[in-house]
């Protein structure tokens, strides 16, 4: 009998009270009474893990062990020790029984009788109700303690404060760390009075080698912003200030002030008036942030990448009429999280926008370029007679190998060679047959791709004719939409521009699959040199050469936006 024991308690307090040990003692006593033996590797326990979740280390090891058909029976004190929810209980019982492992409960033995199954369902529902009831009682008890001012809303104190190690959750044990409180006061003064930016404050903290709140980490803008927006530095601890949403798109939201719970007063680091001025400046900066500035339209917004470092480029206007695309790595190490600044030059936005739009118009008005690129991407156009010649060669080779196998078999039957020699030669011939069969499959696949390329070429020409009629009269919004539709990325490397197009595979192109004709811009691929355009004012003299690098054909399921 390959026996296993499983025990679980929900809280660390129960674990410290040896609740699991008591369960294991009962299980071992029952096993000895039955004459069963259990090894140490088959004892599974979860100390302080909720039965509402299946992510428990002891339970996972038990399930892995049962999946190997290494267990015959599992002893558990009660069904709620296995899981709280009835659905989880049924899931685990079915999983274990399908591996040939029988589950036995000491307190509530179960059989396949319908009455026992109904009782199991009722007990599972009661256990789930008990857990919900316990959770609600704990929530109300915690809320009462917070409102009474006897419980801290956090276990890790904010930067600038320390907790009493003997009373870690008592608000009366909170006291200031003088050195950290001085840093907090400096941050508020610099931001409110000296008008330093969040990035400037972060840089100052790093340059002054001030220890960050968490060991092993670095000062960042988010940490500084959390300090400047925490009202505890005005002398009051609040609970329920932040609401966090779970699941996809997890975010933090500040609740209305009337929903905050005032827990207890502490020593103030800054005045309320200074705190309010900091909040007003933060709100003003959010309103006039660069991301909200739509006064300067960029035709290639979010599509330009730096070919030197690989980061994306953002728009920047040095003065009215002089707009550029700038690599994010040139802004600051705080933005790029890198130690060095990218040496790439600024890219004149007007010249790059005009050049990319001109190249896009040229491509749409000369669709034969796309067809030639499609053929070049797959090794050139195949003539039908060449394809048929290769097929005939492969078929002749396969027929020759088949004749050799027949002659080899006749020689073995005539006693010319022994069995070992026959098997060796037969194996060699079969391997050669498999190699020819693989070549034939590759040839057919290439023929299918060439047929697909011909179909794509016809569809591309029809699509280009449809959209090229209104290119001259297109508005800025229409140009932007067409660029989003047909251009995947524009990579600029030291004056050379690479345009990575996305070509539609149907005449309409509005709901069909897309084929990307670009490999990664760092790959070594052949180039097609297009027209050149000189830089404008405010940039180093030179030329921007347009290149179209066609790589392997890759089909994806991404669809374009609505038509232009």
Automatic annotation (TrEMBL):
- Keywords associated with the record: Coiled coil, DNA integration, DNA recombination, DNA-binding
Origin, by domain of life?
Answer: Bacteria
The record ties this protein, via Pfam families, to:
Recombinase, Resolvase, Zn_ribbon_recom
Q: Has the keyword Secreted been applied to this entry?
A: no
Active site, UniProt feature:
10 (o-(5'-phospho-dna)-serine intermediate)
Q: Which residues form the Resolvase/invertase-type recombinase catalytic domain?
A: 2-149
Q: Which GO terms describe its biological process?
A: DNA integration
The GO molecular function terms of this record are: DNA binding; DNA strand exchange activity
Where do the Recombinase domain residues begin and end? 158-288
Q: Which SMART domains match?
A: Resolvase (SM00857)
Q: Which residues form a coiled coil?
A: 419-449
Q: What is this protein called?
A: Preprotein translocase subunit TatB
Source organism of the structure: Rhodopila globiformis (Rhodopseudomonas globiformis)
Q: What lineage does the source organism belong to?
A: Bacteria, Pseudomonadati, Pseudomonadota, Alphaproteobacteria, Acetobacterales
């Amino acid at each position: 009998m390959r026996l296993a024991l499983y025990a679980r308690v929900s809280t660390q307090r129960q674990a410290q009270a040896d609740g699991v040990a008591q369960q294991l003692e009962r299980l071992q006593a029952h096993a000895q009474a039955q004459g069963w033996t259990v090894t140490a590797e088959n004892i599974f326990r979860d100390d302080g893990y909720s039965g509402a979740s299946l992510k428990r280390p002891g339970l996972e090891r038990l399930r892995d062990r049962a999946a190997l058909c290494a267990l015959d029976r599992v002893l558990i004190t009660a069904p709620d020790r296995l899981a709280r929810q009835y659905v989880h209980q049924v899931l685990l019982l079915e999983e274990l029984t399908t591996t040939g492992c029988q589950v036995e409960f000491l307190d509530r033995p179960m059989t396949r009788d319908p009455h026992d199954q109904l009782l199991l369902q009722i007990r599972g529902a009661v256990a789930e109700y008990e857990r919900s009831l316990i959770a609600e009682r704990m929530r109300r008890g915690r809320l009462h303690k917070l409102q009474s001012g006897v419980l801290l809303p956090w276990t890790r104190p904010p930067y600038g404060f320390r907790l009493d190690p003997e009373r870690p959750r008592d608000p009366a044990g909170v006291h200031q760390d003088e050195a950290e409180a001085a840093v907090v006061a400096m941050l508020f003064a610099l931001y409110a009075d000296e008008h330093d930016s969040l990035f400037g404050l972060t840089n100052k903290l790093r340059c002054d080698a001030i220890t960050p709140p968490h060991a092993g980490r670095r000062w960042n803008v988010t940490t500084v912003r959390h300090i400047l927006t925490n009202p505890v530095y005005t002398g009051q601890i609040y609970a329920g200030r932040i609401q966090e949403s779970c699941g996809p798109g997890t975010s933090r939201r500040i609740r209305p002030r009337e929903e905050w719970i005032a827990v207890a007063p502490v020593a103030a680091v800054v005045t309320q008036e200074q705190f309010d001025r900091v909040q007003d400046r933060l709100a003003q900066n959010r309103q006039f942030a660069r991301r909200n500035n739509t006064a300067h339209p960029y035709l290639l917004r979010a599509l330009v990448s730096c070919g030197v470092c690989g980061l994306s480029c953002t728009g920047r206007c040095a003065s009215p009429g002089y707009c550029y695309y700038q690599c994010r790595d040139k802004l600051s190490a705080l933005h790029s999280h890198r130690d060095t600044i990218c040496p790439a030059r600024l890219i004149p936005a007007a010249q790059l926008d005009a050049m990319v739009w001109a190249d896009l118009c040229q491509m749409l008005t000369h669709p034969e370029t796309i067809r030639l690129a499609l053929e070049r991407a797959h090794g050139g156009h195949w003539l039908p007679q060449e394809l048929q010649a290769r097929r005939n060669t492969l078929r002749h080779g396969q027929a020759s190998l088949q004749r050799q196998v027949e002659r080899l078999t006749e020689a073995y039957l005539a006693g010319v060679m022994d069995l070992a020699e026959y098997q060796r030669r037969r194996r060699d011939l079969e391997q050669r047959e498999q190699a020819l069969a693989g070549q034939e499959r590759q040839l057919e696949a290439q023929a299918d791709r060439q047929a697909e390329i011909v179909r794509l070429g016809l569809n591309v020409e029809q699509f280009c004719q449809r959209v090229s009629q209104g290119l001259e009269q297109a508005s800025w919004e229409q140009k932007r939409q067409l660029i989003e539709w047909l251009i995947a990325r524009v990579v600029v490397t030291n004056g050379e521009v690479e345009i990575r197009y996305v070509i539609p595979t149907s005449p309409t192109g509005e709901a069909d699959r897309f084929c990307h004709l670009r490999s990664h811009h760092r790959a070594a691929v052949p180039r097609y040199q297009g027209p050149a355009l000189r830089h404008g004012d405010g940039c180093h003299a030179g030329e921007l050469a347009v290149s179209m690098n066609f790589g392997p054909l890759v089909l994806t399921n991404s669809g374009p936006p609505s038509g232009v």
